[in-house]
Amino acid sequence: MPESLAAQASPGAAPAIAELRLPAVWQRLVFISDLHLCEELPRTGAAFESLLATVQADALFILGDLFEYWVGDDMLAQPFEAHCANALRQATARLPIHVLRGNRDFLLGERFFAATGCVDLADPTALRASWGESLLVTHGDALCIADTAYQQFRAQVRQPAWQAALLARPLEERLALARQMRAASRSGDRAPESYADADPALCCQWLEAVAARHLIHGHTHRPGRDRLPCDGWRDVLSDWELDQPQPRADMLIWSREGVQRQSLV
Question: Whose CB has fewer CB within 10 Å in the chain, the N or C terminal residue?
C-alpha cells in the first residue's frame, strides 16, 4: 500500500502526497490524461480501446478525467460506461492500470475499481522507480491556484458530506445536472491559454516535499515541457480529441532513459 508523505503546509499545498514504490520489473511506464470519454466522441473512445489492447508497458497510469463526467458508480449500468468498464477489465488482465481522479470524474468509487480491476491512485503520488529516480504525478487542477473560484468549488465537492448528498439523488437527476454543467461549460469555451496554469512555485514545493525533480500532470490541455524555478521539470499531457478536424492525443513514457513524449495521432 502507498505510504503517506506530509506535504509542506501553505495555501494550495497537498495535504498529503502518497508514495508508490514500483516493482523492480517495471521498466517502462505509460501516462495518459484527459480523455473525456463519452458517447459523443466515438473516435476518441476507439483510440483508447486500441491503446489498451496494444500498449507496450509494464503499467499504465491514467491521470484524471478519463470520463467527461462521472456522477456515481451506478453509471456502470449505462451501456457506454459498461462498455468502457469491460474494456478496462480486459486490459487489466494483462497489465496494471492505475487511475487517478480528475475534476470531471472525482466521484469514481469502489464499485468502479472493483468492476474494472484498475488500481485507485491517490492525487498526488510520488512514484519511486527501481533505477533510483522519482516522479510526481497529479491531475493538475489543485496546482492552478490563481483560479480562486475553481479552488473554492473544488474544496466543496471533495467533501464527503457534499458527495454523499449528491449521490443520494436519483441517477437521472445527477446525469441531467452533469449534462447541464457540461453544456454551460462548452457555451463559454475559451482557449486553454486563457485559463489559470499550474503555479510554478507550488509545483516546486510539491517536488521538494518528496525529493523529486520531475512532475507530470494533465488538466490544463497545454501539452509541453517546462523548466521549473527549482531546477525541476514539468511535463504536461495533452487532452484527447480525435473527433475534431485537428485531432490530438499523446502519451508520456517513463523509463531509465527519462520521460519521452509520443503522439498517438
Answer: N
Distance, CA of 82 to CA of 105 (rounded, Å): 15
Rounded to 5, what percent of the chain is helix, strand, coil? 35, 25, 40
DSSP one-letter string for 146-160: T-HHHHHHHHHHTSH
**Which residues 6+ apart lie within 8 Å of 171 measured at CB?**
71, 72, 74, 75
- 103 touches 219 (CB < 8 A): yes
* pTM greater than 0.90: yes
CB 73 within 8 A of CB 101: no
Q: List, in sequence order, every residue forming a beta bridge with 262; answer none if it has no partner.
A: 251
Residue given cell 498526488 in the structure block: 124
Q: 3-state class of 138 per DSSP?
A: strand
Q: Using CA atoms, how far apart are residues 209 and 4, in angstroms rounded to an integer?
A: 12
Domains of the chain: residue spans and CATH: 22-196+214-260 (3.60.21.10)
Give pLDDT tens digits for 57-97: 999 999 999 999 999 999 999 999 999 999 999 999 999 99
